[in-house]
């Protein structure tokens, strides 16, 4: 009888897990944008909590005051950076609006030297005005952009406010979440939540460090090469470094196009420089930063980025890496360790 009971219990647990997974995937597919907003707020709250814990440890202040200082430090740093960098970057971005089309024309001229390139160019209409939308379509597009911008700002403020609520009293929400589970499992769920928090905090520290290294290296390298719009291109590299695998390659494209406006040799130097920065960042800096914190398998991360990119576009691509980091913690702790690797005594006691 004990063996039959144990077997039936395992089957029931497996069926329940499958049901939860199916329900989760269904809800994720139907309301993925909502879940991404919630996770974005959690990620920002983790950043605030990490800064708060650091300030509390260094200055020995009360947690509430430390949180206020953490928020001021975070937004103050962004405002200060924008204040000092914005004038230069803004003027360079305006120049980029003229430089990129010029570079595209040069690429078009280079393509015409090849048979396949000539066929590709022939598919582009000579009168580019035909590609412009009509007045009514243009008005509809402008209205759509305005509506999208308002929606983005509203979501942005919702994420910030939610993150502040979560960071102000994290135990209120974590303890409340554990109450959804049986009493005998609550300590284990709390432990997994703690490990997920540590993983997200470590991932944030690692990614911000890598972003700074890539952005500063690109700014110095582009300036030494004499590449126009060096700071604007370095800022693009800095922000897109937040998206592993995909972001760095997207950031390198405008730099190569700007290099083409100077000379093919300059474009080649940019490719070599940026490729060198990415190789050092991928094979030296990132392993050192993440070797004791978060180690995401590259192929699995790329697959997850494609999946969330298909489901929710840029936002899914942006949050794919931290979501995967948390999923790996949950699967490793609650499924691999507690189910697959659990001994008979542990399984029976569960």
| Strand elements, count | 0
Shape, principal axes of CA atoms: globular
Q: Roughly how many Å apart are the termini?
A: 17 Å
What is the arithmetic mean of pLDDT? 78
Estimated structural class = mainly alpha
**How many structurally independent domains?**
2
- Individual helix count: 12
- The run of helices and strands is HHHHHHHHHHHH
- Low-confidence stretches are 127-147
What is the C-alpha radius of gyration, as a whole number of Å?
A: 25 Å
Biggest beta sheet attributes: none
Helical proportion, percent range: over 70%
The proportion of residues in beta strands is: under 5%
Summarize the entry for a quick read.
By secondary structure, the protein is mainly α.
Write up what this structure looks like.
This protein is an all-alpha fold. It has 2 domains: 1-30; 32-42 and 86-126 and 169-349, no CATH class. The protein has helices at 2-30, 32-59, 63-111, 115-122, 135-168, 170-178, 183-225, 230-240, 247-262, 264-290, 298-340, 344-349.
Task: Label this structure with key terms.
350 residues, mainly alpha, single chain, 2 domains
Task: Describe how the helices and strands are arranged.
Elements: H1 2-30, H2 32-59, H3 63-111, H4 115-122, H5 135-168, H6 170-178, H7 183-225, H8 230-240, H9 247-262, H10 264-290, H11 298-340, H12 344-349
Helix pairs in contact: 2-3, 2-5, 2-7, 2-11, 3-8, 3-9, 7-8, 7-10, 7-11, 8-9, 9-10
């Amino acid at each position: 009888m004990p063996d039959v009971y144990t077997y039936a219990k395992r089957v029931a647990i497996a069926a329940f897990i499958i049901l939860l997974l199916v329900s989760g995937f269904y809800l994720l597919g139907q309301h993925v944008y909502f879940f991404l907003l919630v996770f974005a707020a959690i990620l920002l709250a983790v950043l605030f909590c990490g800064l708060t814990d650091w300030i509390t440890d260094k200055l020995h202040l009360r947690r509430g005051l430390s949180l206020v200082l953490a928020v001021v430090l975070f937004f103050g740093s962004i405002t200060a950076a924008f204040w000092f960098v914005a004038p230069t970057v803004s003027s360079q971005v305006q120049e980029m609006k003229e430089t990129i089309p010029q570079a595209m024309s040069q690429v078009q001229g280079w393509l015409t030297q090849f048979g396949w390139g000539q066929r590709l160019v022939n598919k582009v209409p000579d009168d580019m005005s035909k590609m412009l939308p009509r007045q009514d379509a243009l008005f509809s597009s402008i209205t759509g952009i305005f509506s999208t911008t308002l929606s983005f700002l509203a979501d942005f403020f919702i994420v910030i406010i939610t993150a502040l609520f979560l960071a102000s009293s994290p135990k209120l929400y974590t303890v409340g979440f554990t109450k959804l589970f049986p009493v005998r499992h609550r300590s284990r769920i709390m432990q997994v939540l703690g490990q997920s928090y540590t993983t997200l905090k470590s991932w944030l520290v690692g990614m911000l460090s890598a972003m700074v290294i890539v952005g500063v290296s690109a700014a110095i390298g582009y300036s030494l090469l004499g590449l126009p719009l060096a700071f604007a291109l370095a800022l693009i590299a800095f922000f897109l470094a937040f998206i592993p695998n995909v972001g760095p390659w997207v950031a390198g494209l405008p730099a190569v196009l700007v290099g083409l406006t100077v000379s093919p040799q300059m474009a080649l130097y940019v490719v070599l420089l940026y490729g060198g920065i990415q190789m050092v960042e991928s094979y030296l800096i990132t392993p050192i930063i993440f070797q004791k914190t978060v180690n995401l398998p590259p192929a699995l991360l790329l697959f997850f980025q494609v999946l969330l990119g298909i489901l929710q576009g840029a936002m899914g691509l942006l949050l794919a890496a931290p979501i995967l980091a948390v999923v790996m913690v949950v699967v490793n702790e609650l499924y691999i360790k507690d189910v697959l690797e659990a001994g008979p005594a542990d399984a029976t006691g569960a």
